[in-house]
Amino acid sequence: MIVKTKNGNRVLPFTVVGTINGGIRTTTSAGQWAEANGTEGFFLLERDLLDQQVIDINGRKVVRVNDVDLNVDAVKEAQGARPVLRVSGVDVGARGAVRRLLRGVVPVAALRLLLRKIPQRTIPWDFVDLIETDPARRVKLKISHDRLAGLHPADIADIVEDLAPDEREAVFETLNEEVAAEALEEVAPKVQKSIVESLDSERAADIVEEMDPGAAADLLGDLNEEHTEQILVQMEPEERQEVIDLLEHKEKTAAGRMTTDFLALPERATVEDAVDSMREFEGGVEAVSTIYLVDGEGKLVGEVPLPKIALAEPHTPMRSLTQLPLVRVYEDVGDNAVAELFDKYNLLMLPVVDKQDKLMGVITADNVINMLRAKL
Amino acid sequence: MLYAMTTLALSEVLGAPVYDPSGAAGGRVREVALAPWR
To answer: Computed from CA positions of residues A28, A30, A31, A33, in that sequence, does the dihedral angle turn out positive or negative?
Structure first.
């Protein structure tokens, strides 16, 4: 505890606290308490937690801390029991706010009666993720977002959208690239842009590299040219080229909507080959619902849905499992026609081909849903 | 008594008077530091 004494602020270790009951009784005198020289390295509950936004991992949302619940435990020692104060949770409801507002204004007994009538809204400390915008303090206080990273990317995205810009940056600085990329794909385009603009180009490139190429191209296409180039320069050559190719397509066309993360095999491939390719595939799960077959020139010749592969023997030729009609779309076809095809054929994926029928990429159902939602 | 209590609110601790063994007021709680972190 930091105690304000007539000789300045002192650090009162909890080991010398005897009791807490209408005041704190210590076992040593104020002269023996060390001077509080700077509090930068400490995590102070009033300064760093009270009234701050934290992430409720269990509720998957951002909440403001109105008060902090402290548990008083007794630790038995040779000399007797000693009190220990632990943070048990944060109060994010009206009870904490009312308690602070009326403290010292209303008699203690009346306040307690009133507080009993207000429902408690407490988040256990184990489900609290702190947001620290100062990178140095983040390191010093070992603040990470390991638990946040365990949430679904869409939930992370919702949480991030509720944060202030500097807090968003703090979260994206801390998440590992893969998680950050998946979450970034789910964030609204405007927020996505502001996050990437707040990161240095090296960090932004690390995250963009892990994104689905189509989503990465959409994002970079929204940034100004100079910033896009700064990020592209920092990217690995293969991923960079993929994104550059996609950036050349018009946004509201099939090619502008497609991703180049998909599975295509030679037409002579077997089910065993298909399974092997799935094992090595690093793209999203939404892009493995269908595996495409191409001829020697890269022309689309067939498609096999995942259930058929799962049910077939390993040596079955993929060609024998193809389904008809082979629905595909040309690269320059507009959004509406793409949506109509998904609707008409109940598609999960739609291959995009050029004028020579060469397979260029795929559009996944989640992209179409995003596209339609943007039009609502 | 302290040991009979289970929870306290931070807002109740902040500003609480601190007494030394002789019962003299030594100061008031200004902050509570969390250490070690987690």
So the answer is: positive
